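seq:
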Amino acid sequence: AARPAPANTGNVGGETRELGELKSGRLKRLHAVWQARCGARRWPSRADLRPEDFGFILGTVTLVDVLRDPLRFRMRLVGSQVEDVGRRGDQGKMLDDLKPKFYAAFLRPQYTEAATAGVPLIHRVTFLGASRPQLHPLSYERVILPISSDGAAVDTLLIASDWPRSIDGALRKFHAEN
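struct:
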């Protein structure tokens, strides 16, 4: 059953979902690719995942490096569609340096859970839910898939989102205002 995602704010919130609740065919397909690349291991390595394996959703993919001692996150790659709706310039940044601060605060516990529990996470993300409900449905589904180069610890998060392209303009406006 759905449960609130950590760090809901008036501007962005969401809920964690179970795999069976995932509606996006593209995200289900990406999860199946990830699962197939795991083989007998708990997680695939980045070398196991080739961009052509998930070209059907590549524009919404973000790769996040998991750095340890202390636990931090660096945006290694930000997909072209993510940049197009207003997340330009995030590539190479640390999570805590993302703007607006409430968005970084919203993402931190989700990335932390995926990195430490080492399990795929599925979220329904909703923007402007409390502050401007008339803009709904400004929401989408997202998966966070753990990756490990050594099989011992998660060192990368593969994140992909699926939103209706009809909300691109509203997402751009949200990011421009915040």
